[in-house]
Amino acid sequence: MEFQNTREFAQQLDAQDELFKYRDEFLFPRINGKNVIYFTGNSLGLQPKRTKTYVDEVMSDWARLAVEGHFYADKPWWDYHERFAIPLSGLVGAKPSEITVMNTLTVNLHLMMVSFYRPTEKKYKIICEEKAFPSDQYMFQSQVRFHGLNPSDAIIEIKRREGEHNIRHEDILTKIEEVGDELALVLIGGVNYYTGQVFDIKTITEAAQKTGAYVGWDLAHAAGNIELRLNEWNVDFACWCSYKYMNSGPGNASGCFVHEKHHHDTELPRFAGWWGHNKERRFKMEPDFDPVHGADGWQISNLPILSLAPYLASVEMFAEVGMTKLIKKRNLLTAYLEFILHEIDKEIDGTEFEIITPQNQEERACQLSVYLHGQGRSLFDYLMKNGVITDWREPNVIRLAPAPFYCSFEDMYEFGQILKKGISKP
Description:
This protein is an alpha/beta fold. The protein contains 13 helices and 17 strands.
């Protein structure tokens, strides 16, 4: 498509956008009397208007029924989490039995490590990506130390080549082959939080499993953002938070995937709890743990219904639209943002924007990470004060995530104009 840096052209794209109506389904912060341009859905998504109805329903049932809400609420709390299985399985390419919702992201990664990181004297190494999200790095280090191993020996980071911003896929595959029989686990973020690079989940999973290693994925920046086929790709496990692209609210519940091939493996260790016990026999209070045959068998405690309610509101909205339509708009919206950045770059002398997110559409999704050469934190502050909520990362990178559910093409144009003024200001 031949893009134009005009408001009229952006409005024309919005008029042709079949998802534009969903913009009105969300609540926007306001600055200077106007809705903000919101680029931080990769950190915390906006609140869907329907969320309050779902939360109020739980509060009303609690007031009206008290403990009986577990069984007699309109959406009984006893099996509330089961409502996620079908819509989430469609979003991540899984079977409903492979999906559960529980805890929060890093807690769930730790729980998955109980089952899928079982180092031996020979097979104990973990491969991850350089500059993984810090929580993952801390999780790796603590797990390795828990097993009495040295992180500097057991943890292998795939590094970027000198002078490059992104990790080459061939370097990941080469390192997997090099570590070979010593490799116990590969655990990488499906989308790198800093650069926005999308990794080839299918190819990496296949390569690592050939060495006998387990493969897991942190999908915090991938769920609700990219196409996933976790069952087909034979991924062993995956976890994701729900509050970024999936708009469930701050610090909310995490989704988990455990491949069906592991559901009946009685030798696979796990931390057990009452809510993962055989559902039909749970209230018999039996002394021996009999796990549910499915991802729900990894649950430990009963679920926080007030947290699940906002997530369910968002998941059902995703199910209405489907990832195919979201990805189609995501690609066009991100491409238009990229065009706007290049146009502003050409218009202002002494400025250089370096987009460090891959140009190849197969290796990027909703995020563009931009080096602001010649600019500093003051430009970020200017954007925030003028109604653009974005994200600053040292040394001088802004992350821009135009979420297709609620960002418009006119937002991209308007952002360009505000950016231009911010650079040109005395």
